[in-house]
Design goal:
354 residues, three-stranded antiparallel sheet, hpI Integrase, Chain A, 49% helix, 15 helices, DNA polymerase, domain 1, 2 domains, 10 strands, mainly alpha, globular, 10% strand, single chain
Length: 354
């Protein structure tokens, strides 16, 4: 039985029809689909069941797999061969596992059994074992003291490119560190998501995030220094653009200090973090024998660094999971392995570490 699955939009304003064996250039006929029509409302809700960037990633993976299959029906044997080909081409286990996630997703949404069997499972197991050293690895953490040093350096620049950019970047980094924010959460923050408390602290409402697709929301604590930086940036932004609670907090700035209304993109946030880290935290980067730069910081460095700083100050794994809004405790546990070892039984009972 041939399997058809309709996927609309994919955030690129085009429509494709996916058949399990091929990607079709045109929709299946009404005869092939048994005359069943699916309403736009149903399609939109099906599409909304996955995050836009997840849909884009799955679509790209499915296209690459279909091109490699070249018209052959997918099977356990062919899928295993495809994974082995990707490994031979130098891909990391994490990148290769995206193929399996894509196939599972398409099959689940189409109510069909995935083709993965024992051969695919064993090949993937071998890839994970032999390819442990592949991939970018964990980015360098920016812990509380590093974030404070980075912010202080930005705020005290002798000749900043613009006072507006320095104020925005200091507020942005401070907010990312306090809130352990993902870059997708940061660029979506509007002024109506922020409010200040009588003691000088603040609260940030995250309506929806990667780990909260149903929109239950989360409220995050912001320390008084972060609130001061946000209020300073708010005053600059209000003087330049409209004073509207719907405005995005972290917006672009043109040369000369002209503040824009559009939010920063993921790429622009990553670029400004790397630029500041290279300048003020150069110890996070290193060069190989050929002079290529490795390591360094990214927008994810604050999530890792803040988790490690909290662990060093005694935060439990459930507390870390809540603070970082992780669905599973495995991620904060992985990030904080060194910190946990430093407060473990051997450190405390033999060497008296607290």
């Amino acid at each position: 039985m041939e399997l058809y699955y309709y996927i609309g939009n994919f955030c690129r304003k085009f429509v494709v029809f996916i058949m399990f064996d091929h990607i079709l250039s045109k929709p299946p006929s009404s005869d092939e689909c048994d005359g069943t029509e699916i309403s736009k409302e149903v399609l939109h809700l099906m599409e909304a069941s996955l995050a836009p960037r997840t849909l884009e990633a799955y679509h790209a993976e499915w296209e690459r797999l279909s091109k490699w299959l070249n018209g052959r029906p997918i099977s356990d044997e062919l899928l295993a061969e495809y994974l082995a080909t990707l490994y031979a081409n130098g891909l990391s286990p994490a990148s290769i596992s995206m193929v399996l996630a894509t196939v599972r997703c398409v099959c689940r949404l189409a109510d069909q059994q995935p083709p993965m069997g024992s051969m695919t499972s064993r090949v993937m197991g071998g890839i994970r074992r032999k390819g442990r050293g592949r991939g970018r690895g964990q980015v360098a953490p920016i812990r509380f003291k590093d974030a404070d040093r980075l912010i202080s350096s930005i705020e005290t620049e002798t000749s900043p490119s613009s006072l507006e950019a320095a104020a925005r970047d200091a507020a942005l980094i401070s907010t990312m560190s306090d809130g352990m924010l993902r870059v997708s959460e940061l660029i979506a923050v509007r002024w109506r998501h922020l409010y200040w408390e009588y003691d000088g602290s603040g609260r940030l409402m995250i309506p929806v995030s990667k780990s909260d697709q149903e929109g239950h929301g989360a409220v995050l604590y912001l320390g008084p220094p972060t609130v001061d930086r946000l209020q300073k940036w708010d005053k600059m932004q209000r003087n330049a653009v409209t004073d509207d609670k719907e405005d995005y907090v972290f917006t672009g700035i043109r040369r000369g200090g002209s503040i824009q209304t559009k939010p920063l993109t993921r790429q622009s946030v990553r670029r400004l973090i790397v630029r500041h880290a290279k300048q003020y935290l150069p110890e996070l980067f290193y060069e190989d024998e050929e002079g290529r730069l490795f390591g360094g910081a990214s927008s994810h460095s604050f999530r890792i660094g803040s988790a490690q700083s909290l662990a060093r100050r005694g935060a439990t794994l459930p507390q870390l999971q809540t603070a970082g809004r992780w669905k599973s405790p495995s991620m904060p546990a992985s990030y904080c392995r060194n910190e946990e070892a430093g407060t473990g039984a051997m450190a405390r009972l033999r060497y008296g570490r607290k």
